[in-house]
Automatic annotation (TrEMBL):
It holds the Pfam family DNA_pol3_delta. Residues 19-139 form the DNA polymerase III delta N-terminal domain. It comes from the Bacteria. GO terms for molecular function: DNA-directed DNA polymerase activity. Residues 216-331 form the DNA polymerase III delta subunit-like C-terminal domain. Its EC number is 2.7.7.7. It catalyses: DNA(n) + a 2'-deoxyribonucleoside 5'-triphosphate = DNA(n+1) + diphosphate. PANTHER family: DNA POLYMERASE III SUBUNIT DELTA (PTHR34388:SF1). The lineage of its organism: Bacteria, Bacillati, Bacillota, Bacilli, Lactobacillales. Belongs to the DNA polymerase HolA subunit family. It comes from Fructobacillus americanaquae. This is DNA polymerase III subunit delta. Keywords: DNA replication, DNA-directed DNA polymerase, Nucleotidyltransferase, Transferase. The gene is holA.
Length: 331
């Protein structure tokens, strides 16, 4: 089901008692939160709407709330984040599992329980997970691919009668790695920039939108593989000055080389491979484009050298900058 389907259920008053929301697109998940909240009248939300983090409170207070009748209203809404009992990392007691099953089998009329989970982490072998999946309406909100992000961007700007030129759009997608949530977060600045001209140009994007860490790792890996050592060292210096921790930067660089190797040995669409590797499809697309310019043996050597650099960073009291300079000289 989609957000539009949920909206129709709300409008028609045909609401189930249990929803399971999966996916990893933050902007859409926040939209789902707002949509479910619209079920409860604003004047009643303090009494009839609750948000719990299962990792903090456990199951008992959630069930107590869910089994309470609505207070002077038609519905009670219980939203649950991090339902780790549906994953391999956590489990309920036998009594808790029984109580949950009984609560879902005989729900209080008008009450809704919404579980926000990540589909990738669900343990579908567990009895309780199977039970929840059999009872719940499943709302899946996966990350938008590049085409969908472009469409959403054009729709958003079109509603506000603002245009974005081709160069600016390409740079915006590059800097945000085509993440719909990240693009959405950057648009208020860009709309303010284009308030007079009604056009977002390349100058506005480069001046206002910072590159995501994965995009910076892509740039650094590209410079290393193209043997542009002075430029790679300059970028490394800048990233450290801007607050990047050497270990994290090394991990990002290692991750980029690993991705290149994984993509080089794989087939399938950007979307399917991205889902398999748990990365955004746009990163897969960029990796495929980059591989036409690199020798695979060079990528393998870089990956092994960066791994050795990480081991030295963790085990020796050596200046990380010296290690990176040494890596560039020997690579």
């Amino acid at each position: 089901m989609t957000l539009q389907t949920v909206k129709q259920q709300i409008e028609q008053g045909t609401l189930p008692n249990l929803y399971l929301v999966t996916g990893n697109e933050p902007a859409l998940i926040q939209k789902a939160h707002r949509l479910f909240a619209s079920i409860i009248d604003p004047a009643e939300q303090e009494m009839n709407q609750s948000i719990y983090d299962f990792a903090e409170v456990g199951l008992d207070p959630i069930l107590d709330d869910y089994l309470s009748a609505p207070f002077f209203g038609d519905h009670r809404l219980v939203l649950v984040e991090n339902p780790s009992f549906l994953t391999a990392g956590s489990k309920l007691t036998a009594n808790q599992e029984k109580a949950l099953q009984e609560a879902l089998a005989q729900p209080v009329p008008g009450n809704l329980l919404v579980l926000f989970a990540n589909e990738a982490s669900l343990d579908k072998r567990k009895k309780v997970t199977k039970f929840v999946l059999s009872r719940a309406e499943l709302l899946d909100l996966p990350a938008l691919d590049e085409r969908q992000t472009r469409q959403a961007l054009h729709q958003f700007l079109g509603q506000r009668r603002v245009e974005i030129n081709q160069e600016a759009e390409a740079e915006l997608l590059l800097r945000t790695q085509a993440s719909y949530s990240q693009v959405l977060a950057e648009l208020p600045k860009l709309l303010a920039y284009a308030s007079q001209t009604k056009t977002i140009d390349l100058t506005g994007v480069t001046g206002l939108v910072s590159k995501e860490s994965t995009a910076q790792a892509f740039d650094l890996a590209d410079l290393v593989l193209k043997q542009k050592k002075a430029e790679a060292l300059h970028l490394y210096h800048d990233l450290i000055k801007n607050g990047e921790a050497p270990l994290r930067l090394n991990a990002l660089l290692l991750g980029q080389f690993r991705l290149l190797l994984q993509v080089a040995g794989s087939t399938g669409s950007d979307q399917s491979l991205g889902a398999t590797l748990k990365v955004h499809p746009y990163r897969v697309k960029l990796a495929r484009q980059s591989l036409s310019h690199y020798r695979l043996g060079q990528v393998r050597a870089g990956f092994l050298n960066i791994m050795q650099m990480e081991i030295k960073m963790k085990s020796e009291t050596v200046d990380p900058l010296f290690l990176f300079e040494q890596f560039l000289l020997e690579f």
